[in-house]
Amino acid sequence: MSIILDGKATSNQIKEELAEQVLALKAQGKRPPHLAAVLVGNDGASLTYVGSKVRSCQKIGFESTLIQLEDNITQAELLATIEKLNNDTSLDGFIVQLPLPKHIDEEVVIDAIHPDKDVDGFHPTNFGKMALGMKTFIPATPFGIMELLKRYKLDISGKHAVVIGRSHIVGRPMSILLSNKGNPGNATVTLTHSRTQNLADITKEADIVVSALGVPNFLTADMVKDGAIIIDVGITRVTDANHPKGYVIVGDVHYDQVKEKASYITPVPGGVGPMTIAMLLQNTMLAYTRNAS
Amino acid sequence: MSIILDGKATSNQIKEELAEQVLALKAQGKRPPHLAAVLVGNDGASLTYVGSKVRSCQKIGFESTLIQLEDNITQAELLATIEKLNNDTSLDGFIVQLPLPKHIDEEVVIDAIHPDKDVDGFHPTNFGKMALGMKTFIPATPFGIMELLKRYKLDISGKHAVVIGRSHIVGRPMSILLSNKGNPGNATVTLTHSRTQNLADITKEADIVVSALGVPNFLTADMVKDGAIIIDVGITRVTDANHPKGYVIVGDVHYDQVKEKASYITPVPGGVGPMTIAMLLQNTMLAYTRNAS
Fold this sequence. Notes:
By secondary structure, chain A is of the alpha/beta class.
C-alpha cells in the first residue's frame, strides 16, 4: 500500500499561506495581487479551468479579471488585448488559456506576453531561465509536482526519474526541473515520448515516474517497480452516463493496481490538478512582489 | 572496429559551403557576415579558442573583430562594451568568451547580449526557444554534434541516448536537442550528472553516449554496449613533457578500448571540437541572413 500525495490538501495549505500574505498586505494598506485570465471561445474544459482559477483568486483575496473573447476574434485583436494587459500597471500577471482556436498562432501569442507578466511561464525567455536554473516563473503543473515532492520531503537526488510525454507545458519542463540542481532535484532523468521503444522496460527501472500522456489507465502495475513514486498528470474526460456531469476524469495511471506497488502516489482527481492552480497563484504572488519592489 | 565521425573533415566541408555563400554575397555587391569576439584576460585556453574562431572567420571570408579587454575590467565596463556591440549595425553577431574573471557575473553579462546577436545561443530567450523547438541560435557544441549525426545520416529516432554532464553549454542543450522532434532527434534521452548513481549500468544500455564530463579516459569499454554511437565532448589538457606544447588534449572516452566496440565514434582531437567552430560560423550566417532580410 502506498502513501497518497494529497494534492488537494497541499494546494489548500498553499492557498491558506497566500491568503495570510494577502491579509498582511492589506493590513499595510497595499493592494492585493491581481491576475487576469484571457479565454477565447467557449470550450467546456477551458471554461472549467479558467473558472476554477478565477474562483481560487477570489477565495484567497487576489483580485482577478476574466476577459472573454469570441471564438472568431482575429489574431491581431487578441494581440492588441495582450498589449493592453502588458501595459496595465494594476495587473501583476495574466494567462491566455490554451488551446486557442486553430486560426490563431499560439507561438506568436505566447511570445507577445511580457515575460514579467507571464505567470504561466510559457514565454521563451522564462522557459530558458527555468532551463538554466535561474529564478523565474515556472510552468504551473511541473512547479506543482516539484512543490508536492518538496512538502512531502521526498529525496530524489541521484534517483532515476522517468517522465512520459515531452509537451512544452508538462513533460519537457518536468524533465528539466527534476534534473536541475536543487532540492528537490538532482535526479537522473529519462524523458520518454511517442517514439520511445520498449517504454515498459524503462519505467520498470524508475524510482519516480511522472506520466503526462493523456491515455486513461495507461500505466499498469507490471510497468512499475516496487516502491516507486508515481505522479499522474493525466486528466482525460471519459464519458460516463452514470455520472451527473456525463463524464469522469481518469488519469494515466491504473490507480487500483499501481497503488499496491508504489511507495507514494498522486490520485486523480485530487493530485496534480489542484497543485497546478496553487502554483499559478504562487507565480502571481511572485509577480506582485517583483512589481512592488 | 568503428567508423570515425570525422569532425575535422565535416567542419571543413561546412566552412567551404559558407565560403561559397560569402563569395556569392560579394558577387552581389553585399558585405560579408561579421562576427566579433570579446576576450577578457589572458587565459591560455581562451586565447587559443578565440584565436581559432577569428582565423576561421578570415579563412571563409567573414569579417571578424577581436576585442581584448584587461583582466581587471569592471563589470560595468564590460556591459558598456556589450551595449556598443548590440547597437553596432555593421556587426551580425558576437560572443563573449567564457569563463570570465570571478569578479564578473556571467549570468548578467550573457543576459545583456541582445538575443538577435547572441550567436553562442546562451541567452535565456534563445535557450528557451531552443528548448521549445523554435528556430534560433543553438549552442555551437551540441549544434555541431547534431550536424555530425545528420551528415552521417545516423538515425536516432526512438533510440536511447545517454548524455553525461548537465552543463548549460553542452549537456543540458544536448539532452533537449536529441529528444526534440526532428531528424536527427526523437531519441529517448537520459541526462546523467555528478549525482547519478550506477552510471555504468545506464551507459551500458545506451545506443548513443554523449560524454561531456571533462575527465580524461573516463568512459571505458565495459561501460558501453556493442555497436553504440560514441560522442566525446571532453577536451582536457593533460601535461605531457614529450609534446612540444607541454600538454596533450585528452577526451572523456578511452578511445583505444571503446573504438573496438562502438559502431561510430568521434576522435579527440578532430571530432566535436572543429564542429563547434563551424556551427558558430553557421550561427553567424543565420544572424546575417536575418539582419539582411
